[in-house]
């Protein structure tokens, strides 16, 4: 039995990222996936499940798209890798940088490439601090982020992450990171005043918090944040690792708020997970300042910055998002998904608030101060054919969803039905 053999090898040799260690050791992997097709994943036993999370909020164009395999293969066969350090470059990286300048909001114009979201975050913090060194203000080095935020697991990204359990996992963090209450521009003003604006390099926030439980800000929040950053001479960095490339029903999350950041962190949907890639896009004026003031070397770079194959995959992925109107589909199907959540809310006493923006959604479970129930609902839903995720940080008991942007109405209905039945089953067992 292949499943059993793989399961034993997995338990013994594979230390999983962000995993419940005890459960993993006892039971092994719940699914060993072998195939993907659209919104569906299939495992080694032939079980088909809806990938209601686009895996890790990233498989935006859905699974099994041969065009991306083709793009990767063509580039691999032509030029699999060459360096982008110093004055070396390659065509896919150049064309992708130009494409990002075209599709990102406002005057965002120039990209530094990474291999993922954590690296994008660490890069943004370092570039922000270097920017102030170049401007003759080296004391501006603090980074302010939001409570409940998630920015990744590199040392800087962990330090900026507002979800405390991620920071407590290790007992020494990077210095000069501070946190402010999420959703409140007034709280940010107070934090800036308390810390001293002359010591602050940047403020970073997700347009919609993802891992923290899909929290959506008020319409004015980012306008007020932008004004505060301008007023206090602080860079605004937005982390669009989840919200980029159509997830929220706009090409980029900040388009909902009409605000352009100084730097934007990207990853995930940039390749829909078909290759490892991320980036930080700088505004034209920040980039210009960098170029005019720097006469040394930009001493920051990853071996895989501007990886030709990953960039070729990203270009094809963006073309698919555009040609198939997936941003619009995310907006329309997001409305259907939210209506579905509202229907479940009416049917099931266990359901509290429901939220959504495009294809990012959340359903709160009313555990009434008792043990959270969302993890049991996640397991029940998985056994019935739907993958979703629970968020139990900060006394939350919430389910979150982010299906592929290719999802159709029937598939949304299937998702909603399974979710309803899973909640009903757990309710019944109480
Ligand atoms: N930023 C946000 C908002 C994320 O959701 C994530 C990952 O979930 C990251 C950064 C980290 O990205 P990666 O896991 O690619 O390093």
TrEMBL record:
Gene Ontology MF term list: transaminase activity
Signal sequence residues: none
Domain of life of the source: Bacteria
InterPro entries per the UniProt record, alphabetical: Aminotrans_3, Aminotrans_3_PPA_site, PyrdxlP-dep_Trfase, PyrdxlP-dep_Trfase_major, PyrdxlP-dep_Trfase_small
Protein's UniProt keywords contain Transferase: yes
Gene3D superfamilies associated with the record: Aspartate Aminotransferase, domain 1, Type I PLP-dependent aspartate aminotransferase-like (Major domain)
Keyword terms: Aminotransferase, Pyridoxal phosphate, Transferase
Pfam families: Aminotran_3
Family note: Belongs to the class-III pyridoxal-phosphate-dependent aminotransferase family.
Protein name, per record: Aspartate aminotransferase family protein
Taxonomic lineage of the native organism: Bacteria, Bacillati, Bacillota, Bacilli, Bacillales
